[in-house]
Amino acid sequence: MKKNTLITLCAVAAMLVQPVLGQTRSGCADGVVSFTHRGPANIAMGEEFVVETVVVACRDAANVRVSEQILDTLEYVKSEPEARREGDMLHWNVRFMDKGETKTFKVTYRAKDTGLMRLCASVAADPRECFDLCVTKAVINIQKDGPARAELNQAVTYTIVVMNEGDATAKNVVVTDTVPPGLTHASGKKELSFTIGDMPGKSRQTLQVVFTAAERGLHTNKACVATSNAGSACDDAITEVVLRDLEITKTGMKEQFINKVAGYEIVVKNTGDTTLQGVQVVDQAQAPMKIVAAPDATMQGGQAIWNVGELKAGESKSFVVKTTSPAVGTYRNCANVNAEGLARSSCADTLWKGQAAILIEVIDVEDPIQIGEETTFIIQVKNQGTEVDNNVAIKVEFPAEISPISASGVTEGKVDAKTVTFAAYPSLAPKQVIEWRVQVKGDAAGDARTKTYLTSDLLKTPVVEEESTHVY
Q: What is the average per-residue pLDDT within 27-38?
């Protein structure tokens, strides 16, 4: 009769609640959080079901605590996020929740019994007060401007603009300007200093410095700004102090192999402020080099000649020369430019190199051989290239069918069981051939494969030569 009474109570409860969902609500009112505790209204014994507690922050909250009791009539399966279990209680803790933020806590149960069950959860939280803090920063920068070109002995004026591009005040702002060689200041100082003090955010200060162009050339005037709270910055301006003059530069390949082609570029520039007439460029290759190509040039006596004619102020022209050399060595290729009594030259050195190329050949004098019969392995190494190779070494590994007896050749050989190692040959000249010999005997029938390993300064990874010898 008791079981029937429980079924009747469940049936009555089912008519009084929603058909598929049971839930309780707790509103905000003056609380820190509100929450809803919900789950299915009906479930069959043995089935799994999920209960949710949904917490909403009514204001900024801290130390949010959610607890739920596990009934004896239910089997706890899992929780999400995973809860901390203490006896028949499940607990979750959330450090902070912002106003309006929602957190959901799910528990999966399995019904172990029948009857009307009351599932409860509790939520507590502490109020959290927050305020906004705006952090600003000073960002210092500097800009240095001046003329790109100035005439010798004339005044050169530079403008320095110091900028605080940030929002905070830059403090203890000091500008230093380094006087470059070739420019002078009326004070005779090599470094000028300007104290600005504090600079509010989004502000700028402008300074001017005046120098005299004392020497011709490119001069870099550098100014730096330093602060006590916003770091430092530097900028520079480059000024060319000019006169009537001519410049030539020659660049080319630093290295090339002999009998190949090395290319060079010649750039001639009027670095003065007047047009030059009768400009002529001549290129001469040092023997044994010779010029093999010089587009648009006239070849005369091994020289390449370009008659440029007029070259305006600031104008530049470039020319290409190609050379070759049959010999190893460092040789110089010089270019000269002449115009209106001005003469300038520029040279480029090229290291012409040879290249070692090592060939190995292994020969067994008698093949095939009988067991107990002897034969000789001849190992020849040739440098087919054009450069010396050093520390040429040989190691020979014999198979089970063959055993080494003795070793001889250009360097001493050592026989150790099935391996013969020769001392390194110190220097193998181009076209030179060296030779080693190993006397061996047949031990067992078979197709014997002997491996010879060649290494040198050039050949860091061994070159392997395999020789087949038939033993019967």
A: 87
- Written as six digits, the tokens of 379 are 């190992």
Other Cβ atoms closer than 10 A to 244: 16
Instruction: Report which of 404, 381, 385 is spatially closest to residue 455, judged by C-alpha positions.
Output: 381
Average pLDDT over residues 23-36: 79
* pLDDT digits 0-9 by tens, 6-23: 333 444 444 444 433 456
Question: Which residues are bridge partners to 164 per DSSP?
Answer: 140, 203
Helix (H, G, I), strand (E, B) or coil at 461: coil
What rounded mean pLDDT belongs to the chain? 91
Per-residue pLDDT averaged across 305-315, rounded? 94
Which residue do the tokens 């209680």 mark? Answer: 89
Return contacts of 360-367, CB within 8 angstroms, 24+ apart. 360/452, 360/454, 360/463, 360/465, 361/465, 362/450, 362/452, 362/465, 362/467, 363/467, 364/450, 364/467, 364/469, 367/468, 367/469, 367/470
The answer, yes or no, to whether residue 261 has pLDDT greater than 50, is yes
Task: Evaluate whether 55 touches 102 at the Cβ level (below 8 Å).
Answer: yes
Give the global pTM. 0.39
Angle at 208 between CA 207 and CA 213, to 5 degrees: 150
The set of residues, in sequence order, having a beta carbon less than 8 Å from that of 425 and lying 6+ positions away, is 381, 391, 392, 393, 410, 411, 434
Give me the sheet containing 374-383, strands edge to edge. Answer: 358-364, 374-383, 433-442, 402-409
How far apart (Å, rounded) are the C-alpha atoms in residues 66 and 61?
13
Task: Report the alpha-carbon angle 289-290-294, nearest 5.
Answer: 135
User: How many residues in total does the chain contain?
Assistant: 472
pLDDT per residue as tens digits for the range 100-131 = 999 999 999 999 999 999 999 999 999 999 88
Concatenated DSSP letters of 135-175: -----EEEEEE--SEEETTSEEEEEEEEEE-SSSPEEEEEE
Q: Find where tokens 């034969």 sit.
A: 375
Say if CB 201 and CB 167 are below 8 A apart: yes
Q: Cα(86)–Cα(77) distance, rounded to whole angstroms?
A: 15
Report how far residue 468's alpha carbon sits from residue 332's, in angstroms, rounded to the nearest whole number.
52
- Cβ atoms < 10 Å from Cβ of 363: 11
- Residue 69 contacts residue 108 (beta carbons within 8 Å): no
